[in-house]
Amino acid sequence: MIRFERVVARYPRAARAAVDDISFAAPPAQITAVVGPNGSGKSTLVRALLGMLPLVSGTIRVDGLDGATRDRRAFARRVAVVTQRESLVFPMPVREYVALGRYPHEGSWHAAGVEDERAVDNAVKLAGILPFALRSTEELSGGEWQRVRIARALAQCAPALVLDEPTTFLDIAHEMAMFELFTRLARGGTAVLLVSHQLNLVARIADRIVLLHQGRVAAAGTPNEVMRAAVLEPVYDWPLVVTRDPAVGAPALLPLRGSSH
Amino acid sequence: MASSAFVSWRALAHGHLLPGTVPFVRCARAVPVLALCVVACRAASPRRDAMSADDFGEPVARGSAATPSRIVSLMPATTELLFAIGAGPRVVGRTPWDLWSDSARRVADVGVGLRPNIEAVLAQRPDLVLLYATGENRAAAQALRAAGVAVMALRIDRLEDFRRAARLIGMAIGDSARAATVVDSVDHTLARVRSRTAGLPRPTVFWHVWDAPIITIARGSFLDELLTIAGGRNIYEDLSQPSPQVSLEDVVRRDPDVILAGPEGAARIRASATWRAVRAVREGHVLVVDTSLIGHPSVRMGEAATVLAHLLHPGVMQ
Amino acid sequence: MKRASFWVLAVAILAVLMILGVSWGTVSLTPRAVLAALAGRGDRNAIEIVRALRLPRVALAALVGAGLGVSGAALQGSLRNALAEPYLLGVSGGAAVGAVIGVALGFSSAVALPLFAFAGAAAAIATAILIARAAGGRADPRVLLMAGVIIGAFANAAIMVVLSGAPANTMRSALWWMMGSAAGADWPQVAWLAGYTVLAGGALLWFARDIDILALGEESATALGVDAERAGRRVFLVSSLLAAATVAAAGLVGFVGLVVPHLVRAAGIRRHRALLPGAALAGAALVVLADLVARVAHPPAELPLGAVTALVGVPFFLVQLRRLS
Predict the structure, then answer these.
(1) Inter-chain contact C270–A80, Cβ cutoff 8 Å?
(2) Which residue, B41, B260, B246, B73, is CA-closest to B157?
């Protein structure tokens, strides 16, 4: 369970708090989505969760452990985070890369044990990267690389998983496969926190949506509660209508052409 | 102890280095030592045998009409020579290393003699400048001539160079007779030393100039000649440069009987673990030479040879 | 190349080069004479040459190479910079300034000097990182490198200013030292450098997994449970200490820290737990070879060690730079 409580965070030298008084929780066995326009504070929340941005006030806890803890490894055992971007300066074999996810579980000499091997095998399988597990990371396409990164997070075997725009570089098929995977993980008990700007996709799989606007929670609730034109229009500052996804019946957002201003 | 590289750093810190008087081969551009001129690169100009040309091949004006009265001498060898032939009062500029004789110390110091400071030289309003003939001084010679000052560039590395320089300088200042007397006196002393050491066993000698890197004296230097006259044999007499860089391993192989070094160098050698690889060091045959006396190919070479002979063959000069 | 064969090959090459380093030199000795000398028999001068001059010298060269290789590998990994190495980052230059100051203050032992060199090295790398950050280019390896080059130039200038009043021979020694040399190695010095190398190298080996993670970048490293700032600082301080100890022992020897880690990675070794020892072996081999070249290229004179490594390193650097852009 990831719990944000009255979180206020500000970048150094910034006049305004980047996130201001945010409270919500991502419970186990659910997908919680954080959405919002650019600059609404989505990625700031992730940085704050990682302890890279000190909080002005409030707390972020994962299974009771405060995100400000000095014991980063203990924290990493509770939550795995796939950051928005990552590039490797020194390429390595895919499997070796995935095994880096075992870091928080390793002993002080960091020798890989049977359990580590099993976790890596499992992560490779879950993320569907078995076909290129023996390749080098420099030979991967953007989509493959993204899945390999998710596999590394899965190898962390944390009860909570945070994904910051995980499908940005994926085509439709791979994107959908990823969302299927997140759904499976949630069914398996993982607390999934999905940060995304793709409202329509999120609306189909998320159990709850937290809508951010200018660093504050503009709305929070089920997709049906949040995906309403009256809620979204002021946040996105654009005329839009909400319809139904013909396939699954989830709410879907349709931006209109032309400005009302 | 640290490497020999650090020995030099330490010496720097304690401010007791060789006085910069021992010649060595061409070094970094920044090197501010006149003495270095003494043996700098031999790449300069073809040497003229003609009595009337200096070592840049420029004509030397014959005295009388315009006998120079204000001379800047940019190397210790010529400064010593000028004072020895009685032209001391005409010397108006010298380098920081021209400290003999005592009266020379009272002459204005115009800075280094290699790539000299032209302004400082001209400030002395000289009518003759003596400088070391090396490629690095060519520009300075031209600049001084352009300013209307007579320049005599001389490369004084070996005994013969000294004799020739004395003749040219004597001619230029209009006192060839006294110049010849000074040369004769040096030659006379050298001959005396040579005759005393003739027939004596000749110890092999390593001449230690510097140790990071290791610099020694070879055939191109007057010091090699003095060593021979004094009854020694330089282990590097086969190398043609004046002061080559060598490796310690090679010194061990050449196995000198004696090591000659300045006071600081001798102390460092005796304290060093690596130098103990040389037999002469283990056997305690590290002899100290007075670098301020022996450093320059000039009027005191007779005295220097006498001192060397005495070091190598104690009592021989009595 | 298979990884196992890398280790066999690296050890074999190092062993061969060390044997050559003891057998060859300005003075040519027959293998029989070398063996006899090692055993303490035969010609006294040969014994001295082999045991008092060549053995400590080869040992020092190997340690300098190992230290620079490990330091370079650790810096490249933790700074995520394929061009990072102590010399190019100005770390060595800073160490040189530190050593000069140490000497000027009257500390000249093989024990204390590395500490002064270390202070200079740490100041240099901290400044380089600050400059790179201020230029907003931590992500661009070339910015950090530029900062390092500037600091190296500043260090050279500082040394020249300090020495400007010194006699010519001192200046010459300074220039000689700044080009690096293993000449004049003796056993106490080898022992001290070995101590620093084992301590700092061991510490870096202890941090090896952290370096693996740091190489992913700050955010990912944090997500995996590494305090990126603290771990990064630790790694670059220890790497600087290691580089500084080599500078105190043998002056500025450039490009070893750049070349060596890439060679080892090319052999398929990526994890720093293996990469660091691999870089130690390859670095030792490279510098023993370079020192051998320095000794035999132009007898009886010796070339500066740094000049030999630069001849190898600069073309390699250009290849790496090209790959970056």
Answers:
(1) no
(2) B41
Residue C225 corresponds to which amino acid? Answer: G
Measured from the Cβ of residue C8, the count of other Cβ atoms closer than 10 Å reads: 10
- Mark yes or no for CB contact C215/A70 under 8 Å: no
CB C77 within 8 A of CB C90: no
Q: In chain A, what residues touch C217 (CB-CB under 8 Å)?
A: 86-87
Are the CB atoms for A228 and A207 separated by under 8 Å? no
- Between CA B92 and CA C99 the distance in angstroms is 41
Calculate mean pLDDT across residues A204-210.
Answer: 94
Taken in order C214, C267, A113, A83, the sign of the CA dihedral is positive
Q: Which residues contact B297 (CB under 8 A, 6 or more apart)?
A: B38, B77, B156, B157, B158, B159, B161, B162, B222
Round to whole Å and give the CA distance between C238 and C164. 32
What DSSP letter does each residue of chain A carry, written as one string?
-EEEEEEEE--TT-SS-SEEEEEEEE-TTSEEEEE-STTSSHHHHHHHHTTSS-EEEEEEEETTEETT-S-HHHHHHHEEEE-S----SS--BHHHHHHGGGGGG--TT----HHHHHHHHHHHHHTT-GGGTTSBGGG--HHHHHHHHHHHHHHT--SEEEEESTTTT--HHHHHHHHHHHHHHHHTT-EEEEE-S-HHHHHHH-SEEEEEETTEEEEEE-HHHH--HHHHHHHHTS-EEEEE-TTT--EEEEEPSS---
Residues C166-189, mean pLDDT to the nearest whole number = 79
Structure tokens at A152: 């590394």
The pLDDT of residue B154: 93
**Given an 8 Å threshold on Cβ–Cβ distance, is B8 in contact with C188?**
no
- Chain B contacts in chain C segment 192-231 (CB below 8 A): none
A194 contacts chain C (CB < 8 A): no
List all residues 6 or more positions away from C277 whose beta carbon is below 8 Å from its beta carbon. Answer: C205
Say if residues C124 and C91 touch (Cβ distance below 8 Å): yes
User: Across the strands, what pairs with B129?
Assistant: B72, B151
Query: In whole angstroms, how far apart are CA A183 and each of A154, A188, B94, B265?
Result: 14, 9, 91, 81
**Which tokens is A221 given?**
């609730």
Least confident residue range of A39-48, B57-66, B249-258, C197-206:
B57-66
What is the H or E stretch that residue B207 is in? strand B204-211
Tell me which residue of A65, A100, A31, A6 sits closest to A250, measured CA to CA: A31
**How does pLDDT run across B86-126, given as a tens digit for each residue?**
999 999 999 988 888 888 889 999 988 888 999 999 999 99
Q: What is the dihedral of CA A11, A13, A18, A24, to 10 degrees?
A: 50
User: Which pTM does this prediction carry?
Assistant: 0.84
Query: What would the pLDDT profile of B240-271 be if each residue is shown by its tens digit?
Result: 988 899 999 999 999 999 999 999 889 989 98
HSE-CB at C230 with a 13 A cutoff on CA atoms is 8
pLDDT of residue B42: 37
